[in-house]
Amino acid sequence: MSVDSKKSASNGQEKMLLSQEQQALINEVRKLIGPQSGKASIFCSDACISRYLRARNWNVKKAVKMLKLTLKWREEYKPEEIRWEDIAHEAETGKIYRTNYIDKHGRTVLVMRPSRQNSKSTKGQIKYLVYCMENAILNLPPEQEQMVWLIDFQGFNMSHISIKVTRETAHVLQEHYPERLGLAILYNAPKFFEPFFTMVKPLLETKTYNKVKFGYSDDQNTKKIMEDLFDFDHLESAFGGNDDTGFDINRYAERMKEDDKKTYSLWTRENSPPSVPNLALSLDSTRLESDTDASDSEKIDSSPDLVMDTGIINPDQKSLVNEGEKNASADIH
């Protein structure tokens, strides 16, 4: 089944409109999960349900199962109730933070610096990651529902690797934040990181793995990709940009405290889901597939992302391997 689309005059991207078939599947999921109230009703917008359907190739049964598990997780974990004071100690070094700029496709940007890890608590690290995810989603502009991760490997060594944290991170992101990741750029990853990444691959679903790109500061193709993605006057110098301001924990804390107020306002509304960025709908042009015979545990591939030309840089040759097609909507999963 195809998706109707129309051209956006403002940015040249295609805005995807819900087809009758897609809306019917969304309605079916809504019927099967049953009536929701409070925060669950706000969470379960059509946009949200469509992300779960896309994450499971429009298989209603699998999408319902996945969504129900997330609703249970959110009820118990209460990610929308995490506040700055709960995780401020984890944020002190700037190991993860939301930038004050977006990319040229309107996606919020999270910077990650694993060498600045300051905690041995898996629980604390995951709680801070969840806080950052919720904050990035809160700050998505209209008609964009995905984000970009920029991962800076400067100063990284083997002591910063944790299989336990990596496994838990992959689980939380893939199961409870599907279709949220547009692109993850691993910038200047050292050679010894490759075997670890190979080992991690089985933890990642195919479409998640395909969104991870390697970039290098001495590679011209990487520079071209970064220029296509970002305004260099805003991009940090660590990623080849012109901004050398650096991370300031005090200024960042003030931003997050203000965002906590917006978070409270959003999740205390118990009526129909408000029209805010994190509930915006941006369907991709993947054909609908029921695929009812596929197992629930299978790795699910997706059609190529349609937001931009990207490629994975081979760590051995430091050369760009073009993946071909443009992506209009990249996903967390």
UniProtKB/TrEMBL annotation:
Gene3D superfamilies, per the entry:
CRAL-TRIO lipid binding domain
Which segments show compositional bias classed as Basic and acidic residues? 286-302, 323-333
What's a single GO MF annotation on this record? phosphatidylinositol transfer activity
InterPro entries per the UniProt record, alphabetical: CRAL-TRIO_dom, CRAL-TRIO_dom_sf, CRAL/TRIO_N_dom, CRAL/TRIO_N_dom_sf, PI_Transfer_CRAL-TRIO
Instruction: Please list the residue ranges annotated as the CRAL-TRIO domain.
Output: 84-247
Which residues lie within the region annotated Disordered? Answer: 286-333
SUPFAM superfamilies named among the record's database cross-references = CRAL/TRIO domain, CRAL/TRIO N-terminal domain
One Pfam short name: CRAL_TRIO
Q: Specify the protein name.
A: CRAL-TRIO domain-containing protein
Q: Tell me what organism the protein belongs to.
A: Glycine max (Soybean)
